[in-house]
Design brief:
The protein is mostly helical. The chain has helices at residues 3-21, 25-34, 37-47, 52-64, 78-87, 93-114, 125-131, and strands spanning 71-72, 121-122. The protein has one domain. Helices cover 62% and strands 3% of the residues. It starts with a helix and ends in an 18-residue tail after the last helix. The mean pLDDT is 85.
C-alpha cells in the first residue's frame, strides 16, 4: 500500500477517534504511518542504499514481483505487537500505538489478500527464521535499475 493510502486511512481513523482520545489521537495517526519504517530498514539492508526515493522504487519493484518474494517487516510481527502491548502497562500511549499498528495491519492484510500475496510476508520473527530457508528471497534487480531515479 502507498504512503498516500496509509495517510488517508490514518487521517480518517484519527478523526473518528478525536472524541475519545483528544489530542492523543496524534499518536494513533503517526503510529499508523510510522509502522512502515521497517520497510526502509529492509531497503537499507537489502540494497545498501539510504535514499527515500530509492526505497519507494525498490518496493514498487518488489510489489510487482510479489509471487516470488518472501518479505520480512519487523514492526508487522506478532512479537513486536506483543512487546508494544506489554509496554502499554507502563504507558497507555503504547496501547494507542498498538491500536494504530493493528488498524494498519488489517488494511495490509486486506491488500495482501486481494493481491493473492497473503503468504508473501512473515507475520512472526520465528516464522521468518524457520521458513526463509525454503522460500525465495528478494529478486535480483535488473541492470540499470538505479539509473532512473
Amino acid at each position: 500500500m502507498t504512503l498516500r493510502a496509509h495517510t488517508i486511512q490514518a487521517g480518517i481513523g484519527s478523526v473518528l477517534l478525536i472524541p475519545f482520545l483528544g489530542v492523543d489521537t496524534i499518536v494513533f495517526f503517526f503510529s499508523m504511518i510510522l509502522i512502515d519504517i521497517d520497510h526502509y530498514f529492509d531497503y537499507v539492508f537489502v540494497c545498501r542504499r539510504f535514499d527515500i526515493k530509492g526505497m519507494f522504487k525498490f518496493h514498487n519493484f518488489i510489489y510487482k514481483s510479489k509471487e516470488s518474494v518472501y518479505g520480512f517487516s519487523l514492526f508487522h510481527t506478532v512479537e513486536v505487537f506483543l512487546l508494544v502491548f506489554l509496554l502499554g502497562f507502563w504507558s497507555y500511549y503504547f496501547w494507542i500505538i498498538l491500536s494504530g499498528f493493528l488498524v494498519h495491519f488489517i488494511f495490509d492484510l486486506y491488500a495482501l489478500y486481494m493481491n493473492n500475496a497473503i503468504f508473501g510476508r512473515a507475520f512472526s520473527i520465528i516464522e521468518y527464521i524457520v521458513r526463509r530457508k525454503n522460500v525465495k528471497g528478494y529478486p535480483v534487480l535488473p541492470d540499470g535499475f538505479w539509473e532512473k531515479i
